[in-house]
Write a structure and sequence with these properties.
mainly alpha, 3 helices, 0% strand, elongated
Length: 82
């Protein structure tokens, strides 16, 4: 954990894991499948790799894409009606 890319991608991945665990313990959501969490997880790994190998702009773009995917596809702030 020596670069900013390490810290940012670990924080994003941790939030993704918490979202997954929170949703798996709560009421079922028919539109939420486990496979939907693979692209942002792989994106975090790829962004970290790119950032650690001196490809700063590609890493930043991929990190922004991962956050966008989480916000628009997984929708962590949607309220579920009980």
């Amino acid at each position: 954990m020596s670069t900013i890319y390490d810290w940012v991608t670990v924080v994003i991945f941790g939030a993704l894991a918490i979202l997954f665990l929170h949703r798996s313990a709560g009421p079922s959501r028919p539109s939420d499948r486990t496979i939907y969490y693979l692209p942002p997880a792989a994106g975090c790994a790829a962004a970290n790799y790119l950032g650690n190998n001196d490809q700063k702009w590609a890493a930043i773009a991929l990190t922004v894409a991962v956050v966008g995917y989480i916000l628009f596809i997984l929708r962590p702030f949607d309220r579920v009606e009980l």
